[in-house]
Structure formats: structure tokens, C-alpha cells
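Q: C-alpha cells for this one, please.
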Amino acid sequence: MSPDKNRATAAAILPLVGGPDNIRSVAHCMTRLRIGLHDRSLVDDAALRAVPGVLGVVEDGATYQIVLRPGAVARVTPAFEALVAEACTAAPARPAVTAEALAARGAALKDARKARNATPFKLFLRRIANVFVPLIPALIGCGIIAGLGGLLANLGWVPALVPALTAIGSGFMSLIAVFVGHNTAKEFGGTPVLGGAVAAVIVFPGVAKVEAFGQHLSPGQGGVLGALAAALLAVRVERWCRRRVPEALDVLVTPTLTVLIPGLVTLYGLMFVAGAVSAGIGTFADRLLATGGAVAGMVLGGLFLPLVMLGLHQALIPIHTTLIDQTGYTVLLPILAMAGAGQVGAALAVYCRLPRNGSLRATIRSALPAGLLGVGEPLIYGVSLPLGRPFVTACVGGAAGGAFVGLFNQLGVAFGSTAIGPSGWALFPLLKGTSGMAATLAVYTGGLLTGYVTGFAATYFFGFTRQMLAELNTTPAPATPPTAPGQTTEEPALA
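A: Here is the predicted structure, written as C-alpha cells:
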């Protein structure tokens, strides 16, 4: 998309979200333009869905999210921010905000929040996801580099380069606790560097000299879960200090107590507890797939698309990261990736069943490459979810692929991903297993093909009623597919 088209898309979106005066914040993830709004009631949802390039809209408790194609969102967002900045610069000074206006705005936000049914648990999960999402690019890059180093080592090529690649790929993971602590404090209202300082205690080699409860600590014990808990405690201590420490002493006393108190609690409590929880997660994942691989894989693969739709899949990031820290890879991600395979198969079936729906077929053609690489949101919000039934049949495909991979885990071909983020065909460079690369690649490929075929067949034969086929093949299709009864693209999301 050219810069002019990016700016045109941004210019089309801006008035439909209430104009620049209604924009509180702007950000983006892999597929979504995420906008913080002052007044949700000013947004025109129907018109936004009709904007070329917009695949759907999603809401959560904090942001209004506009689903765009991967790659496009990273170019449209700067153009959108520039338009907002230009409008704010050119606009005359706003009148003073009255108490009545603030009260009305607060009431509108409160009503909107109630309508979205944002529970405390869901809000907490969103905030935990916000801690880990910024780490994904580094996890991907370092995971691929580490995998390349392992490949060169196995093949015996360029042996002098292997230690360098190992150092580059492993450096981030060795200090990931610090980044988790930093992001946790930032997300929950503390000073980021203090959260990182407390979390750094966990990975400091000198903790091996600390003895508690008759045991010596190990550097890294507790991992990212310990870092998350330590930083949360640091935020609580810092807030307490800010309220009670005299202003003249705040600059000295508050940082000291914020690091000291959570640091001691981390050394003499959190590292042991978080270490036990982390070990339990690893043991549970191994036993789950070793004893109930096919059934567990079917359940995980079948339910993952609804989690993606709701954005709750981000809450799995700490579990993936813990497994990578313990064993070098997460066994769950290849199974969960099968949901994307079911989605691709379902989209292909929709393409075949609706030969006269040019608009929907164009959406599938543009979103399918991203779906093959594991980015499923364009297909979810642009194709299967609005149609209703194809979303369910896509889940069936994911369940079949997950059962295939889980079965081979149960038979002893255990493998996983050395990083999180990629899926689909993009996951191949990150695969690592105990049975050799050939077996690992064969099983993962078989799982993808199973997901494609099952998702296609289930959607082709059961994804449409006769009425749906008649309507979608004979009436002019809108810019986005019609919403099936009981379905909506405005589901709460975390992404």
C-alpha cells in the first residue's frame, strides 16, 4: 500500500471514530489499530466496517480496535497519528472543560463499560497480556537466531559462528525477567525501572549464595512468574510510599523501600513459590500430552480460535514463556497453531462455495497469505465469524489438527516452539523436539494438512444453510460479510 493510500485509509477512519478531539491514545499490534476514545458513542461502527481495508472492529475495556491486514496496520497507524497531530495543532484552543461535561463523559464511559461486561478477571488478563505483548518481537528474533545456531551445530557448518549465535539468541532469554518486571511496573502504574530492578534479583548469579528455608536459591528460579509477582509487589510498595513519605524525602526513601522490601520478599518467598508453580506448569504440560495427547490436543486446538477471537490467547504468553525457560521450547504452541490451519481450510471452503460473492472472495484472497503464516484475525473478523457457521467448522478443523499432533506427542514424538509469536508455516524455523528434526517437521506438517482438510470438509458440507448459500450467492455482497444471527464482530478482545 502506497503512502497516499495509507493516509487515505487513516483519513477515512478518523472522522468515523469521532474526529481528532475524540482520540485519547493511538497504538497498534500485528493486525489492529488500537484507539483510546474519550466518547465511545461518537463512533460509527457500520461505516468503519465499510472502509476499504478494514476487516472488522473489536472492543475491550480500554481501547477500540480496528482490524486491518498485517503490514498495513504498521503503515496506517503513523499516518493516523500524523492526522491527529495536525488537527490538534491547527485547532483553536478548546473551551474550559466544565464539571458537567466531565460528569457526562464519565457517565457515558461507565455505561459503555457495563455494556461490554468487562469483568475484573478479564481486565486483569488484559493487563497481564499488555506486559508480555511488547516482548514478542524479541522472542521471535532471538528464537530464530537460536534455532539457526542449533541447525549449524547439528550440520557441523561454520562451527566458529555457533557460539556467537548462541550468545545472541540466548542473551534476551537470560534477562527476560528484567523486561517483564519493567513492563509490569509500567502497566500497573509504577516506575518501570524500579520494577526491572526488583525483577533483576531473580536472575542475578549472586542469589546462589542466599540460603532460605535450608535451601540455596538458583539464579532464574521462579522465572517470569516470579518477576511478574515481584514487580506487582514493587508497584504496591511504591504507591504506599508516594502517599505517606514526605515530599522532601521521597526521592531517597521511596526508591530504596520499593526495591528493598519486594527484593527481600522475592528472595525469601516469591522465588520459591514461583519456582514451584513454574515446575508444576512444566510437569502438567508434559503429563497432559504424554497421557492424553490426542484428546488434549483436540480440546486445545478446537478451543483456541474462540480464545483468539476474545483476545484471551495473550494470557497464555506467561505459560509459553515459562515452558521455554524450563525446557527450551513450548509444547503447547504447535498444537494451538492447528486452530489457524482449521481457519485456513474453512476460508478455502467459503471461497469455493460462494463463487458469485466477489467481495467476500476478494477478502479471502487478501487475508489467506497471512492465515497461512499464522495470523488468523483477518480471516476470523473478515470471513468466518461474521458468517457464523464457518467459524464453528474452522474450530472443528483446529481440533482435528490438534488431535493429530497430540497423538504423536503421546507416542513419544515430543516437540515444541523455541519462541512465541509465529504460527502456521512461519513456525517451522522455530521447531525443536526430542526425536530429531525430520520427525518433528513431518508431524507438524501432518497436523497442518489435517487441519486444512478437516476445516475445508466441515465447512464445505456443514458450513452453510441453503438460505445462506442463496442469499450470499445472489445478492450484492457488502464490503464486509453480513453478521449471522447471534453473532457480532464486536466481541471483547485483548489483542
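A few notes: Confidence is low (pLDDT under 50) at residues 93-115, 475-495. The chain has 19 helices and eight strands.
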